[in-house]
Amino acid sequence: MLSRSRLIKFFSIMVALCIGAALLGWLSLNRYLETPIADGHSSTESIVIDIPAGFGVNQVAALLHREAGLKWPRIFAAWTRSQGQDRSIRSGEFAIELSMTPPEILALLVSGRNVQYPVTLVEGWTIDQALSQLWAIDTITSTLQGLTHEEILAQLQSPYPALEGSIFPDTYFHTRGTTDIDILRRANQRLQQTMNELWPARDAALPYESPWEALIMASIIERESGYNAEKNAIAGVFVRRLQRGMRLQSDPTVIYGMGAEYQGDIRRRDLETTTPWNTYRINGLPPTPISLSGRASIEASLHPAEGTALYFVSRGDGSHQFSDTLEEHNAAVRQYILNRASD
Question: pLDDT, tens digit, for every residue of 164-180?
Answer without folding.
Answer: 999 999 999 999 999 99
